[in-house]
């Protein structure tokens, strides 16, 4: 069964596209099925019952029933490998 992964940034366009591609690649390399949803951070609430993971470049103080991974490292380029490792660990659960 595929994991539903929300990829959210403030506006739902530029940065989430970069993160989206990275997760797609990770999943493919590790033979994990993912269903990626690229959304705005404001839309996360609509997925609380269906998502397995939120990867976001936006700031969020909201508590969700699934893990939230901060992917701002993708913007700075510093610590990207650690973030990918974190994402992969969640996908493998």
Automatic annotation (TrEMBL):
- Identify the species of origin: Oceanobacillus profundus
* Pfam families from the UniProt entry: PTS_IIB
**Which GO MF terms are attached to this record?**
protein-N(PI)-phosphohistidine-sugar phosphotransferase activity
Q: Which UniProt keywords apply?
A: Transferase
Q: Does the keyword Transferase apply?
A: yes
Q: What is this protein called?
A: PTS galactitol transporter subunit IIB
Q: Which residues form the PTS EIIB type-2 domain?
A: 3-93
Q: Name one GO biological process term.
A: phosphoenolpyruvate-dependent sugar phosphotransferase system
Q: Does the keyword Transcription apply?
A: no
